[in-house]
Amino acid sequence: MKKGKKTVKGMTLIEMIISIAVLAMLCVILAMVGQNIDATARATNTLKDKVSKESPYAANGVAKFNGNAGEVEFATQTGTMVVRVPGNYSFNDVPYPDPSVNFNIARYDTEQIVLDGKSAKERNAIQNGPNGGLNLRFYQIVTTAAATTTAPTTTTAAAE
After folding, report:
1. Which residues lie closer than 8 Å to 82 by C-beta, 6 or more apart?
2. For a Cys-Cys bond, which of 17, 89, 102, 110 suits 54, CB 3.0-4.6 Å?
3. Among the listed residues 159, 61, 76, the one whose alpha carbon sits nearest the alpha carbon of residue 112
């Protein structure tokens, strides 16, 4: 009986290089996916933090909050809106040709709550980061002068 030499089979140098290259490409793809997941999680947490801090003020129409520097008023913008309804209308035989109503509107931005107590670098990261421009606002609407009504009324609308 003839005893044969055992042959050892293994990977060649070329096969090893190709295996390492494929593994390196998979690692790069995994790192890119991980960065995307991290950025998405950070953006989600920022938005969740904003909503949880700002929504009670916007929902209740509160124009001030107690911050690190004491009582702080929200930034406001004011304007006027005119609503006109073309046509001739009557109510109880009183004619109303082209009725219109003027509204004074105040918009309150609640972003200051999230930025309160943060450094300039943190403020910049919040404002310019993902979901940075998404802030809750609420509007206070007051009728001032109506062409066809006699008494002004006040209403409040919450959240934009």
Report:
1. 100, 101, 102, 103
2. 110
3. 76
φ, ψ of residue 141 to 5 degrees: the values are -115, 130
**Residue 31, token pair as written in the block:** 């790192």
Burial of 96 (0-12, 13-18, 19+ CB in 10 A): middle
Half-sphere CA count of 136, side-chain side, radius 13 A: 24
Residues whose CB is less than 8 angstroms from the CB of residue 65 and which lie 6 or more positions away in sequence, other chains included: 57, 71, 72, 74, 112, 113, 116
2 Cβ contact partners less than 8 Å away, ≥ 6 residues apart:
none
- Please give the model's pTM, rounded to 2 decimal places: 0.53
As a whole-number percent, the residues of the chain with pLDDT over 90 amount to: 16
In the chain, where the domains are located: 13-157
User: Given the structure tokens 């802030």, which residue do they identify?
Assistant: 135
Mean pLDDT of the chain: 81
Report pLDDT digits (tens) over 3-25.
767 777 778 889 999 999 999 99
> What is the C-alpha to C-alpha distance for residues 36 and 98, in angstroms, rounded to an integer?
56
User: What is the average per-residue pLDDT within 31-60?
Assistant: 88
